[in-house]
C-alpha cells in the first residue's frame, strides 16, 4: 500500500489569489466568489488555511444576497407605486 505525502511549502500558493479574491468580492462579487473559492482550494491542497480567501467568499455571498434583496425590494416598490406589474404605462 502506497502512501501519498503532501509536503507543506513555506509559502501559501493561494495567498495572492486570496487577496485578489477579497478585493474582487467588494468590486465584482461574482468574480470575487470564484477567485476566492479557487484560492481557498489551492491553499487547502497545500495544507494551509487561507483567511483572506474565506473572507472573500463570505463578503461575496453577503453582497450578492444583499443585492438580490434590494433588487426585489425596488421592483416591489415600483409595482406598489404604479400598480402595474409590468411597470410599463402607455
Task: Provide structural commentary.
This protein has 90 residues and is an all-alpha fold. It has one domain. Helix content is 69%, strand content 0%. It has three helices and no strands. It is rod-shaped, with a radius of gyration of 20 Å. The model has no long low-confidence stretch (mean pLDDT 87).
Radius of gyration: 20 Å
> Helix/strand-derived class?
mainly alpha
Tell me the strand percentage band: under 5%
Overall mean pLDDT stands at: 87
Q: Helix fraction?
A: 55-70%
Q: How many helices in DSSP terms? A: 3
Characterize the main sheet.
none
Summarize it.
By secondary structure, the chain is mostly helical.
Helices and strands, with pairings:
Elements: H1 15-27, H2 29-45, H3 51-82
Helix pairs in contact: 1-2, 1-3, 2-3
Which features would summarize this protein structure in a list?
single chain, 90 residues, mainly alpha, 3 helices
